[in-house]
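INFO batch 0412 | record 1 of 1 | parsing
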Amino acid sequence: TISCNCGQVCLSFPESAPRFRYSCLCEDCRQKAVWAFSQGGPAVPLGVMSYEKGFDTIYFGNNVTVTQGKEQLRFFKLRNDAGSTSCMAKCCKTGLMVDNAFYQGMCILVHAD
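INFO prediction complete | emitting tokens
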């Protein structure tokens, strides 16, 4: 289960364990986090901003249940040519999950931090 920073949105995943987890250092994830912060969202971790560490990135199967706050979900692409579609909570600008065409509908990405 994940939730946005203010608690108005909650998502659950039926899988008990992630499919994959790693530290992501990609520029797309950083740009999305910086953009969300500029819109009033959560601060980007200092280690990520200074390139000392990446985001704690977790992949779950593409089976998500919105248990609270469906009306607060916003889907967007950071750029017109972006391969990823991000989901953000409108209420507090928390990034919740990311889908990419490369995943072929099999999984979604969430950041633990």
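INFO post-check: DSSP finds two helices and nine strands in the chain.
INFO record closed
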